[in-house]
Amino acid sequence: MKKIIILLLSLCGLSVMAQEKYESFQYGDKFGVVEINTLNEFIEPTYSGRNSYFDPITLINGSEYTFIDRVSGKAETYITTNQELRFNGNYYKHFYKYDKSIFIPRDAKIKISFNKKYREAIGNGSDLIVKYDGLFEVFSKPNFKTPKVKDIKAKKVYQDFVFRKRTQKEEYLTIFYGNDAIYVYDKNYKLLKEYPSDTEYDSRMFDVISGEFTKVEKDGDLSNYAVAPSYFTEKFKDGYTILTSNEFQKPFQIKGNYRNHIIYGKTDWIIITNKETDKRYSFRIDFEKKRFLLPKKYQEILELKFIE
Q1: Same structural domain for residues 161 and 145?
Q2: How many other CB atoms sit within 10 Å of the CB of residue 108?
Q3: Could you tell me the end-to-end alpha-carbon distance of the chain, in angstroms, rounded to an integer?
Q4: Nearest C-alpha neighbor of 136 from the set 201, 196, 185
Q5: According to the 3-state scheme, what is the secondary structure of 154-166?
Q6: Does residue 26 sit within a domain?
Q7: Whether residue 123 is found in the same domain as residue 165
Q8: Which of 44, 151, 218, 299 is the most buried (most CB within 10 A)?
Q9: Vertex 245, ends 241 and 248: CA angle to 5°?
Q10: Are residues 161 and 149 in the same domain?
Q11: Contact 271/285 with Cβ under 8 angstroms?
């Protein structure tokens, strides 16, 4: 049974790959889109960046993110706020479209949209806190249509475990402060206490509420550093750089002297930089069919080919 399940999952994965018609590429520091079957250029390289986090092809020009469907080629453009957050049990990026807030998850399928343009957004894993016209609103999972709490006049938000003297326990609280008052809410957004204070400082805020709530001090966090993996080996010979995938063991060459970089977790992608011109190129490689998902005209210019 276990082998059958694994086989079915593999076939599903191959089916999804077979449906994909478009892929991104980088040529001369700009990004475009190639048609996979024909290797013709679908979108010329005019974008300045690419975001590899999202499932759709995601190309960037300034604050504009353009999502391109890998099957239909349909494109949609949004303005980024550079806010990343986790709520509704998922990770989202906050965008604007038509002066309204839209939260887009990694697969970009089920977007959460609002009729307001929120300037600030905070997630706590399940719930969403947003700010509009100087007032905070709280949306509690799974209802992101009607705010559970609204019109909270504050400038700052503190969310964490706080020791509560009444219960003698650490409780997860949300504290709004920085305007006319300090509002302390429990994990279900029930108002526990309100204190008159206009302080905007974390330490002073805790001084004001110290009769009932005290900050939980935490030990310093030691970061773990990992050595970046290597997916390709490179060798320069007779004017060409020979690159070999450590996983697929199928070498290919490109004219010029290059160094390679990786996209973490993607062993079928390569980023290469010409050591003389500092020009950068990146593309996906179909090792099974020995194809570079880069428009043919650029492959010819770069003299890019597999070594038989």
Answers
A1: no
A2: 15
A3: 40
A4: 185
A5: CCEEEEEEEEECC
A6: no
A7: no
A8: 299
A9: 140
A10: no
A11: no
Same-domain check for residues 147 and 83:
yes
Q: What range does the domain containing 253 cover?
A: 232-306
Is 66 inside a domain boundary? Answer: no
Residue 54 makes CB contacts below 8 A (sequence gap 6+) with 67, 104, 106, 107, 108
Give the model's pLDDT for residue 217: 84
- Structural domain total, the chain: 3
Same domain? 192 vs 212: yes
* Amino acid making up residue 275: K
Strands 120-123 and 112-113: unpaired
Letter string b/e over residues 48-72, b meaning 16 or more CB atoms within 10 A of that residue's CB: eebeeebebbbbeeeeebbbbbbee
Last residue of a domain, one of 129, 153, 177: 153
Summarize pLDDT for 139-175 with one digit per residue, the tens. Answer: 999 999 999 999 999 999 999 999 999 999 999 999 9
Give the burial class of 279: count Cβ atoms within 10 A of its Cβ; 0-12 exposed, 13-18 middle, 19 or more buried: middle
Q: Write down how long the chain is.
A: 308
